């Protein structure tokens, strides 16, 4: 078996080491004997979402989002169609925001998104606090840990499923305890870190969805020895809880 992972804008949208998500997917595939090819897709490069198995996009600041937005908009219809057909996606932070309908930045300028998620992100203004720090989220994939750093607040439309519920941290908007969004096998999240190396169940959910989409619903993933990943997860969790207990 083999998988093809399209990594969108890896040189631009790579805030806080989001490239590690591609490395983690490839490593977990290779440990199971699954060939995994990472295909970098930059502005202007060809991409047919029907010919890849997973799409990744990381985070970037406002100027990076403006830089890639026209190219991403051009790809939007094909990406939405592929997501509705089951294509797994992991979109992180700035990538997550642009997979919603729009991002309204601190001065009211609008960066249009592609509408994979029924969500909108608004920046509350230049004097507002950023949502920054450790984050712990309860999800259908178990407890996931990471680090968030975003100025924008994301609001999900009624009926849009979140990725999970914030146990510790700010999440989408620091108001409703939601974090991220899900549509079919597409996941949007604010978790950097990068998120997949220390949350192997989330990585495996993307891999399994991709394999079943390509090879059929009977595919199963053999288990791996995730002792190192569990230690990384638990260390991040301990750090988050310890920081939360410190007086402000």
UniProtKB/TrEMBL annotation:
GO terms for molecular function: carbon-nitrogen ligase activity on lipid II; glutaminase activity. It catalyses: beta-D-GlcNAc-(1->4)-Mur2Ac(oyl-L-Ala-gamma-D-Glu-L-Lys-D-Ala-D-Ala)-di-trans,octa-cis-undecaprenyl diphosphate + L-glutamine + ATP + H2O = beta-D-GlcNAc-(1->4)-Mur2Ac(oyl-L-Ala-D-isoglutaminyl-L-Lys-D-Ala-D-Ala)-di-trans,octa-cis-undecaprenyl diphosphate + L-glutamate + ADP + phosphate + H(+); L-glutamine + H2O = L-glutamate + NH4(+). InterPro entries: Class_I_gatase-like, CobQ_GATase1, GATase_3, Lipid_II_synth_GatD. Pathway: Cell wall biogenesis; peptidoglycan biosynthesis. It comes from the Bacteria. GO terms for biological process: cell wall organization; cobalamin biosynthetic process; peptidoglycan biosynthetic process; regulation of cell shape. The keyword Zinc does not apply. Residues 4-199 form the CobB/CobQ-like glutamine amidotransferase domain. PROSITE patterns: GATASE_COBBQ (PS51274). Substrate binds at residue 130. Its EC number is 6.3.5.13, 3.5.1.2. Pfam families: GATase_3. The active site is at 93 (nucleophile), 192. Keywords: Cell shape, Cell wall biogenesis/degradation, Glutamine amidotransferase, Hydrolase, Ligase, Peptidoglycan synthesis. HAMAP family: Lipid_II_synth_GatD (MF_02213). The lipid II isoglutaminyl synthase complex catalyzes the formation of alpha-D-isoglutamine in the cell wall lipid II stem peptide. The GatD subunit catalyzes the hydrolysis of glutamine to glutamate and ammonia. The resulting ammonia molecule is channeled to the active site of MurT. Belongs to the CobB/CobQ family. GatD subfamily. Forms a heterodimer with MurT. This is Lipid II isoglutaminyl synthase (glutamine-hydrolyzing) subunit GatD. It comes from Tepidiforma thermophila (strain KCTC 52669 / CGMCC 1.13589 / G233).
């Amino acid at each position: 078996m083999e998988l093809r992972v399209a990594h969108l804008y890896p040189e631009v949208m790579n805030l806080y080491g989001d490239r590690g998500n591609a490395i983690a997917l490839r490593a977990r595939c290779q440990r199971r004997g699954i060939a995994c090819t990472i295909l970098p897709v930059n502005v202007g490069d060809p991409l047919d979402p029907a010919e890849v198995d997973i799409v990744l996009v990381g985070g970037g600041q406002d100027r990076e989002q403006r830089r890639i937005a026209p190219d991403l908009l051009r790809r939007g219809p094909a990406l939405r169609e592929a997501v509705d057909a089951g294509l797994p996606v992991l979109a992180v932070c700035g990538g997550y925001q642009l997979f919603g309908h729009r991002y309204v930045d601190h001065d009211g300028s609008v960066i249009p998104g592609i509408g994979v998620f029924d969500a909108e992100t608004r920046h509350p203004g230049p004097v507002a606090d950023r949502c920054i720090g450790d984050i712990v989220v309860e999800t259908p994939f178990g407890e996931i840990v990471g680090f968030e750093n975003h100025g924008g607040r994301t609001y999900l439309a009624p009926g849009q499923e979140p990725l999970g519920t914030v146990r510790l941290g700010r999440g989408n908007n620091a108001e409703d305890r939601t974090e991220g969004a899900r549509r079919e096998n597409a996941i949007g999240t604010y978790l950097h870190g990068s998120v997949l190396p220390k949350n192997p169940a989330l990585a495996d959910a993307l891999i399994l969805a991709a394999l079943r989409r390509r090879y059929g619903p009977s595919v199963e993933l053999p288990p791996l020895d995730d002792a190192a990943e569990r230690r990384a997860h638990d260390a991040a969790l301990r750090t988050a809880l310890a920081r939360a207990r410190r007086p402000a």
